[in-house]
Design a protein that fits this description.
mainly alpha; about 350 residues
């Protein structure tokens, strides 16, 4: 990758991450007839952490390009909100449409889930997401607020300020341990800070703010912290750390970008948001088709194709306009931040 140019090789990683999650969520369709394959697809849930590494890279990248300062925090948050929130809301409406026309079951309980999810207040009320994938968006918005405050420290030209800020960030990863009553520790940003930090370090290195030695030492610390936190303290295993670390080195090494993966990468946010609706809509209208050896795998493959096509429509109708609106929000006139 050209360290001074852009992030043009991220498309395949976004594509793989979104597809991993889609295949994981639809793997139950083939679990009865292809249990080994379904078990392998369990790794797909870690596609979330590929996204978190990429977010940790892309977000500070735009902040460096925009010469971000604390006085721009309002515009920064508005920019991110404009980029991601409208597609999020429309994807929730798609779920309501499924419940109304698909399952034929839409009551106040579902409407409340939709509203709580739309406002991202589920963790505060102890209610339920309309679909469980939205917890990741809750974490992402937490990360935006964190970056709005911490970025000037983390990307500081003074090496000691930068290093202390980085070590403090890793220290914050253990804050959730002070709240043993927290049922779902994954909704807290602190649990994911080592993963986001890997992307942040990659940004600083590619932007030549830090040299390779500092990058390597800091990345090692972030990796060890992630492994200890997720593998030992929370008992989640080491697959989260493995996937995140492979993503970092993949971004560093990958030079060639397949066009078809780049296309899916472009629509990956839409893919991520609406694949669940596609899965359950297909199953609803083809309830018996999956109940055979060949029917289950064909249903599984059909879902992948329809999800990509639906994501392409959703991207052009919803996500692309939101992205264009967000681009118009600039910290300073004439600066290109994305």
């Amino acid at each position: 990758m050209d360290q001074n140019n852009n992030l043009s090789n991220l498309g395949p990683f976004r594509a793989i991450a979104s597809w991993m999650v889609c295949m994981y969520h639809s793997s139950f369709i083939i679990s009865l007839y292809y249990p080994t394959l379904a078990k392998m697809l369990n790794w797909g849930q870690e596609g979330v952490y590929v996204f978190f590494v990429i977010s940790g890279l892309v977000l500070p990248w735009s902040m460096v390009n925009g010469n971000y300062e604390w006085k721009f925090a309002g515009k920064f948050l508005l920019k991110r909100f404009t980029r991601l929130y409208p597609p999020l809301v429309l994807s929730i409406l798609a779920w309501l449409l499924y419940f109304y026309n698909g399952s034929g079951y839409l009551d106040w309980t579902i409407l409340k889930k939709a509203l709580d999810t739309m406002l991202l207040i589920v963790p505060f009320l102890g209610s339920e997401w309309i679909n469980n994938l939205y917890w990741t968006l809750f974490v992402l918005f937490q990360f935006y607020f964190f970056q709005a405050i911490a970025f000037p420290f983390l990307a500081n030209k003074n090496s000691w300020v930068r290093r202390i800020a980085f070590l403090s960030t890793l220290g914050l990863s253990f804050v959730a341990l002070l709240f043993p009553g927290l049922k779902d520790f994954k909704i807290a940003l602190t649990f994911h800070l080592p993963i986001f930090s890997m992307g942040m370090l990659l940004c600083l290195y590619l932007k030549k703010i830090i040299v390779f030695l500092e990058f390597f030492v800091a990345l090692s610390l972030a990796t060890l912290t992630s492994a200890y936190l997720t593998g030992n303290l929370y008992g989640c295993g080491y697959h989260i750390t493995i996937v995140a670390t492979l993503t970092v080195f993949g971004v560093l090494i990958l030079k060639w970008v397949p066009k078809w993966l780049d296309f899916i990468g472009k629509i990956s946010y839409s893919f991520y948001l609406i694949h669940g609706v596609v899965i359950y809509t297909v199953i609803y209208y083809l309830p018996e088709f999956k109940n055979s050896t060949y029917g289950s795998i064909l249903t599984f493959l059909l879902i992948q194709v329809i999800a990509i096509l639906a994501s392409w429509f959703f991207y052009n109708l919803i996500e692309k306009p939101s992205a264009n609106w967000a681009k118009k929000i600039s910290y300073k006139p004439g600066l290109k931040e994305d």
